[in-house]
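One example given next:
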Amino acid sequence: MATELNLHTSLGWRWCYYIGSIFAVISTLGTLLFYWPPTRPQFDNEKTRWQEVKELDFVGLALYSAGLVTFLVGLTWAGQTDHPWRSVSVIAPIIAGFCCLIACFAYDFTLAKRPLFPLVVFRKLRDFTILLCFPRLPCISSQAMRWRSDTLPCQTELSRYVSPHHKRR
């Protein structure tokens, strides 16, 4: 698709990104026009929004964010010429990030008053936990996410190597 857009449109390979932007705008407009959530879904009318913000699990959020970012940095660096898989610069962030994620869940399951990840939810095997194990089964939209994250960059990269003056046979 990217090659065809590159060869037959004036904007070339940029259309791959414009298509994603068009779908994002349409989805956002559809959500704004047709989704009307209840105003207070937890029926906590006695608290203000600021009180709810103060009660957030900031420790769990910080542990989760730091752990996920550190873990993903290790995976991103892995396999590059200056960061082979067996180097300390790859193994240390992966292990540190994983330990931070474990600390996040341990904190949320034991000490947090209003946890970011409540243990009660994870104990509901058929309602919630099974969706974590098989995320592609219930989510049709995950295929669209996979296309945007996996296929689109590859197609865009391939379209750079096709000459705009290339004639089809």
